[in-house]
């Protein structure tokens, strides 16, 4: 074969390959073992061409319906009005028993303590390192007095530097975490009110 044609051909093939190969990283390209490329299980975010198979599967409940055992959807809008109205929203859960409270504490420590700190005093690693500013110290009076519904609103939608937890925590889990916060706040204020005078360093400090 003529050398020029051969070189031209090689360059052409390489160019065509370069332009056609990496279109979509999630597309396996030519599939010769479909069972390996496509999971047979209906994975949540997998593309299964199910519509084509006549099954219309999405992982959300049909609009206007509630999953069995699920809490009623939260419908207040994500704006300043919604935030104000949230003050009237009441925790729909019964009081947690000690095991559920442990679970609520676990959820708080996983999701919230990184900023708010395990003691809720805004001393989490992201606060002390200065990576996230303006973290609320939940032991402060203004948050001790904050209505539970408003807390739920913030955990659902986020607020300034705090993100939404609606996708990480179910409605029930969000309310559980708030019950945990409220119970810790109550413990802290009870301690403050009954703290013995000797604990106050001013009484023992050298004057
Ligand atoms: C990335 C850090 C971060 C994480 C994680 C975080 N928060 Fe916050 N949180 C903030 C900041 C910052 C604020 C102050 C928001 C503002 O500007 O009012 C705040 C405020 C709050 C408030 C006060 C809301 C109000 O009305 O002012 C509550 C309650 C709260 N967070 C609960 C939680 C709970 C519960 C979690 C876990 C599910 C959580 N936070 C996770 C950063 C965080």
Structure, explained:
This protein is mostly helical. It has a domain at about 80-195: Cytochrome Bc1 Complex, Chain D, domain 2 (Orthogonal Bundle). Helices cover about 45% and strands about 0% of the residues. It has ten helices and no strands. Helix 4 crosses helix 9 (about 170-195). The radius of gyration is 28 Å and the shape is elongated. The mean pLDDT is about 85. Bound molecules: heme C. Heme C binds near residues 134, 146, 161 and 162. Heme C (HEC) binds near residues 111, 116, 134, 136 and 160.
What class would the helix/strand composition place it in?
Answer: mainly alpha
What is the CATH architecture descriptor of the domain at 80-193?
A: Orthogonal Bundle
Radius of gyration: 28 Å
- Spell out which ligands are present: heme C
Largest sheet: none
The low-pLDDT segments are none
SSE string: HHHHHHHHHH
Total number of strands: 0
Distance between the termini: 102 Å
In CATH's first tier, which class of the domain at 80-193 applies? Mainly Alpha
For this structure, the CATH topology of the domain at 80-193 is Cytochrome Bc1 Complex, Chain D, domain 2
Strand coverage percent: under 5%
Q: Helicity level, as a percent range?
A: 40-55%
Number of helices: 10
By CATH's scheme, which homologous superfamily of the domain at 80-193 applies?
Cytochrome c-like domain
Which geometry do the CA atoms define?
elongated
Tell me, rounded to a whole number, the average pLDDT. 84
């Amino acid at each position: 074969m003529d050398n020029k044609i051969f070189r031209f051909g090689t360059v052409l093939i390489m160019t065509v390959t370069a332009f056609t190969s990496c279109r979509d990283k999630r597309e396996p390209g030519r599939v010769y073992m479909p069972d390996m490329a496509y999971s047979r299980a209906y994975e949540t975010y997998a593309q299964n061409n199910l519509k084509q198979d006549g099954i219309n599967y999405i992982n959300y409940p049909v609009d206007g319906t509630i999953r069995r055992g699920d809490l009623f959807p939260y419908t207040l809008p994500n704006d300043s009005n919604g935030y104000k109205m949230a003050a009237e929203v009441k925790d729909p859960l019964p009081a947690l028993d000690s095991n559920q409270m442990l679970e609520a504490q676990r959820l708080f420590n996983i999701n919230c303590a990184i900023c708010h700190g395990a003691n809720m005093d805004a001393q989490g690693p992201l606060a002390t390192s200065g990576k996230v500013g303006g973290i609320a110290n939940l032991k402060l009076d203004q948050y001790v007095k904050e209505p539970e519904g408003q807390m739920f609103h913030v955990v659902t939608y986020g607020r300034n530097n705090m993100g939404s937890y609606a996708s990480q925590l179910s409605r029930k889990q969000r309310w559980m975490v708030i019950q945990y916060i409220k119970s810790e706040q109550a413990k802290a204020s009870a301690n403050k009110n009954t703290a013995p005078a000797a604990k106050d360093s001013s009484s023992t400090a050298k004057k």
